[in-house]
Amino acid sequence: xxxxxxxxxxxxxxxxxxxxxxxxxxxxxxxxxxxxxxxxxxxxxxxxxxxxxxxxxxxxxxxxxxxxxxxxxxxxxxxx
Amino acid sequence: xxxxxxxxxxxxxxxxxxxxxxxxxxxxxxxxxxxxxxxxxxxxxxxxxxxxxxxxxxxxxxxxxxxxxxxxxxxxxxxxxxxxxxxxxxxxx
Lengths: 80, 93
Hints:
Chain B: Pfam families: zf-Tim10_DDP. The complex is a heterodimer. Chain A is an all-alpha fold. Chain A has helices at 6-40, 51-79. Chain B has one domain (16-91): Mitochondrial import inner membrane translocase subunit tim13 like domains (Helix Hairpins), CATH 1.10.287.810. Helices cover 72% and strands 0% of the residues of chain B. The longest helix of chain B has 35 residues, at 16-50. The radius of gyration of chain B is 21 Å and the shape is flat. The A-B interface holds A 1-5, 8, 11-12, 15-16, 19, 22-23, 26-30, 32-34, 36-38, 40-41, 43-49, 53-54, 57-58, 60-62, 65 and B 1-2, 14-15, 18-19, 22-23, 26-27, 30, 33-34, 37-38, 41, 44-46, 49-50, 65, 67-69, 71-73, 75-77, 79-81, 83-84, 87, 91.
């Protein structure tokens, strides 16, 4: 990046890092959406989510995160 | 370096304008990748839901189902996104 001065290079580096982080977050959300869609949405009789489906999606996200936390904690316990 | 996808800014104030161009291009490419991922997911999930036994063409009822499924998938993405961001924010406090 020789066309840019030092300060601009730093700024661009930071910008790309931030954008990469955003992209990773979006990727995770894609994965969750696919996974939770499969466990919560069985039909599309309407084009909107009903309250049960919305609650199921929210629970799915939270229980998946819980599972991840649980597994890490359990592994730490086993190691001790 | 001139190889950011061969991007050329015609009337460029050196440094300033080109930096904005690079940022703009990074944003656009990531937005495109994000949209492609979403389209692929919708294609996969809604095909599965709406076309259980594929015929010689898309019937009007299949098309209607695809439309509803697509709206629903987008709404699901939104719901999941909010739930995930809320959880991550909560975990970090």
